[in-house]
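Anyone else keep sequences and structure tokens together like this?

Example one:
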Amino acid sequence: MIRVAVAGYAGRMGSAVVDAVTAADDMVVACGIDPHGEATDFPTYRSIEEAVEAGGFDVVVDFTQPSVVAHNIDVALGAGKDCVVGTTGLSTETLEGLAAKAKDDACLFYAPNFTTGAVLMMQFAKAAAPYFPEAEVIEFHHARKKDAPSGTAVRTAQMIADARGFESSAPGKETEIEGAEGARGALVNGVPVHSVRSMGFVATQEVIFGSMGQTLTIKHDSWDRTSYMPGVLLGIRSVGERSGLIIGLETFMG
């Protein structure tokens, strides 16, 4: 039985993780970590330090905030606890630095997106990238999302850039009119990325490729947070057999 600590258990994603872990036959919620959480039917702590001191868990699942996730990972890995992280906003360099301090071969697994459809979308974009001179990413999220662009959009742009080996020649920031700077989006590894924040969305992303006389659009929609849970459970089941830093759910999807 895998004993799971859920950091951010009182939040929207954290609550969904608690429900998914509770429903699984091979794992149990050992404790919750959240300074704003209320008493429930499992032990709860206000900080990662309190949870580590109490012990009794094997892996931490973190869906907290960009401002605290690095600290949570640092403490957990320092105690030899595996980490499954869905909180975005961390650079690859930061993740590498945190993983380097892990004890007892602990694993840091970070996924910009836990939905299988989003992972496939990124893989399809990677496959298409060498064949199209232009590519842009548009991502849509709920109004309360703390970071822009999303981790999925950043990861997608990085994968496109790595796969094609050239930069777009499409008009860029030099075409933005005065007072409308940013109209061409943020450049991530040379790929324009545009972020939309509005009520009504959970998570949607489009990758638009263009070449002479044609466009290719790859789109993924997530309408409910339960769509993330199979990927989260896969991460929980897989980290115990790994060590070091692992990025991307595709690593465990085969």
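And example two:
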Amino acid sequence: MSDSISLKGKVAIVTGGGRGIGKAISRRFVEAGCDVAIASRKMENLLSAAEEFAPLPGKTIPIACHVGRAEELENLVRETESRLGPVDILVNNSATNIGQGPSLNITDDMVFKMVEINLLSALRLIRLTVPSMIECKSGGSIINIASIAGLRPQYEGLLYSATKAALIMMTRSWAAEFGRHNVRVNAIAPGLIRTDFSEFFWKNEERVKHLEANQPIPRVGLPEEIGGMALYLASDDSSFVTGQTFVVDGGATAR
């Protein structure tokens, strides 16, 4: 934890907050004194994370939520506001990648599901939280977890790349619209990070060898390394930063 960054008095929602990148971000927020609602489909992951975070300065509340269901997102925001207060920070982290494989095998159902989880959930949560951020006049920070796959095509990952590219453009559009209300919107584009979500890639020895031979920082990243960037973007240290995509990839896209 950075002693210079405090989120005391702030309230955050982090989707996918029970494991991986979402859990790492939530930890950094709670360490900085933020009260955080962590959300995902699996309550056991949320309860485990909340128990782990219990000794930290901020409060953690677990809320089961399927981000593809509008009524569950509404309940997530309603319960967060009831138990913690108005939302200052929103992290759209939940994602899926069911369409990995040759593009000719992609079905309409895959497209609908990828858009529902990777894009529509963010749009819905922004509709549910930004009006309050504007009304409170204290500002707000929205952090969308994109991917370097949204900056360059991921091989046989057409839908994942397309939805992450769209999320990056949505980030810029929201930033342009909400900036005059002191609501900032930024994205983080991780490279290959060691999480359950990405194990298809980092458990592939040939892929990792290629990464180690070509990436300037020759290793797979850690969730905590995304958490640090999210903490910066959530804090007042980034008060003049909006509409940006921060690449955290060990230099993979530098070549």
